[in-house]
Amino acid sequence: MANWQALIREQLEKDREASVKLLQEWVQSPSVQGAEESIQKSIAELLAKMGLDVDLWVMAGEELVSHPYFVSPRQTFEGSPNVVGVWKGAGDGRSLILNGHVDVVPAGDYAQWSDDPFSGKVADGKLYGRGATDMKGGNLSSLLAISVLQKLGVRLKGDVIYQSVVEEESGGAGTLATILRGYKADAALIPEPTNMKIFPKQQGSMWFRLTVKGRSAHGGTRYEGVSAIEKSMLVVQAIGRLEKERNDRLDDPLYAKLPIPIPINIGVIEGGKWPSSVADLVKLEGRMGVAPGEQMDDAKAEMETALQRLAEVDPWFAEQPVELEWYGARWVPGDVAQDHPLMEILQDKFAAVTGERAIVEASPWGTDGGLLTALADTPAIVVGPGVTQVAHYRDEYIVLDDVFRCAEIFALTMLDWCGVAEGPAK
Amino acid sequence: MANWQALIREQLEKDREASVKLLQEWVQSPSVQGAEESIQKSIAELLAKMGLDVDLWVMAGEELVSHPYFVSPRQTFEGSPNVVGVWKGAGDGRSLILNGHVDVVPAGDYAQWSDDPFSGKVADGKLYGRGATDMKGGNLSSLLAISVLQKLGVRLKGDVIYQSVVEEESGGAGTLATILRGYKADAALIPEPTNMKIFPKQQGSMWFRLTVKGRSAHGGTRYEGVSAIEKSMLVVQAIGRLEKERNDRLDDPLYAKLPIPIPINIGVIEGGKWPSSVADLVKLEGRMGVAPGEQMDDAKAEMETALQRLAEVDPWFAEQPVELEWYGARWVPGDVAQDHPLMEILQDKFAAVTGERAIVEASPWGTDGGLLTALADTPAIVVGPGVTQVAHYRDEYIVLDDVFRCAEIFALTMLDWCGVAEGPAK
What we know:
The structure is a homodimer of 426-residue chains.
Chain A (H helix, E strand, L loop, with lengths): L3 H11 L1 H13 L8 H13 L3 E5 L4 H4 L16 E6 L8 E6 L20 E2 L2 E3 L3 H20 L3 E2 L3 E6 L7 H8 L7 E3 L7 E5 L1 E10 L14 H21 L15 E8 L9 E10 L5 H13 L1 H4 L2 H4 L3 E9 L2 E2 L5 H14 L5 E4 L5 H7 L4 E3 L14 E3 H19 L1 E3 L4
Parallel strand pairs in A: 3-7, 3-8, 8-16, 9-15
Antiparallel strand pairs in A: 1-2, 2-7, 4-5, 5-17, 6-18, 9-14, 10-12, 10-13, 11-12
Helix pairs in contact in A: 1-13, 2-5, 5-13, 7-8, 11-13
């Protein structure tokens, strides 16, 4: 039997320089929502060169946009194609989806970044830029896992389906479209930035919009009005209390180390139109975490109750209740059994490659894994090389060694999961 | 000697229906900043028909925009002409400016209005719509004071200068332009909405913008970031404390009846870009009241100190101090002696017309009066028929009887202040 691990590591080392250059190019392509076409085309070309059956398409159609799991701020996706490449197996093996998104969140305030947010700069073994960690580095690990096996002359028994999707950051319409197009497998890996922790459970989340009302007046007699800005602070406090209640009662040991396992984040505030008028309307937008195993409708009901209780804090809210709207993105929570065979293989390979025991936790955020598990009957496990703490953050980076270590773990996992039909060539 | 008061009242009554129709047309013209051309042209035509020397011009030029008292979000004013009409006196009398602005603040949330904000609807003796009170109703009082005297065949000794200006709501560039064009007088009346209280002192005010910083992170691990939205609440509280300090020490008896004589209003909040990211920047915009007699620079310094003290509340602000910018509008405080001859005439006429004693107070907001007093050597007194409480407010209205009562007081005041050369015709 071949010493797979040594062969794989050696080959990855040989390709390392070219691989880093590829990741740089990916990060330098600022693929925020609506601007993914360039990177997707280059990925499709690459997959075709590797001999995969490539499917590049712009998702569309009534079945997609009217699907109960469809959430996106947009209804049409020109300029944002999906890409899937299938590495056909010889047959008689278990298939595996390697799913990853190419859309990245906006860079935020450029001035807070030490470099251009899309620099792709390499320094001290790290590669910097928006998307490096979330999740172009992980996508590279998946791609390298395939290419390294190919270069070693391996042919697997089961199919490997490489998915480069859009719209993850706004709720998973890209992955939903792959499911509706018929892609499924016996299991899936999603290399979201977990610091190589293994997440069989993933937190779901939902976006909400709150409308807080005030009553306008001249700023010079502001006591004649009611400031929606001041009232919105009471709303933010109430959301904080709800977050605390929901997290205090959570006793899943997989979440034990997280300060706030299922956070409620208020990310956007906007209100008032004139400095010297009392603001009569404030809009708050945020995301509410949903625990694995929790029904999304139950979480929604808790939010409604918390807002209704505001009338006890301030009678103004009895007169002018806060309006609640669930809009935009939604991620279904995911839940794969801890003794699933792929979980065992993964932990085994992790230990072999790193010499350490894998950390198994539940993810603090939603991923496309929930959709694959719930809709496509494809149990999805989330594990990847990115640095969780810098996702959606200024000076986002990834540690390059981790990318290659993940590729090694994934390649070894594929050998066991999909089975080996041929190779390695000598 | 003619019974002026009876003659004036009778003539106003005769013209009442046409006058109300005119005010309706004015209110139906939604003359928010940048959209004043239509109403100004119609006012210029009207003044010309009344025989006044009419000056309609679009203000411009280096002298204006580089003037230390110039404040405006814009530098050019196409579509927003000023209008001045001079009713020349026979000579040897005191001149009087009747100043009023035609710009109105935006309507805010249309849904909170019972009718279209620019309906001009008349019901129960009130005329409704944005600008009815602030201050098209008052402008009509000034216009009627001139026209009623003309119709009675009066010719005054002193000039009466009717000024229909733009840009009052953003800091007085319109009135500044009239001053730079050479208009001044022995005194001025400004019929801003005072509920017919007489304001020899006017509060000044300044606009400010605060930039509150956070640190971005993924909403699902929001504890890794610092929310600029949460920090902005501490800033709003600090502004509240500053407002209280400044008002607690104010002992001007003219302000005794106001709950907050010199308010600080935060009118606009805006921050964060993505519901599931921690907001790294929040912008707050507001207006700070300045007491009559207070130096604007002293008020600015107090705001700076209050923001610096935030570091004692939360060490985050030592690391990331709130940025303060004075921008946009600024109104110079005004201060006319309570025993000024025009004050005496006004109080006398008020008593004659209403049978009541005039209330003399200090205004809770800035007006163009500060500029006229400080720059044009034209002591300006603010008194007008509008309802203070509904200025900048939904369902703004004016009580029509008050408009005509103010016209009567102004006409009588003009007879005494400017002196009568001819009339009335029998």
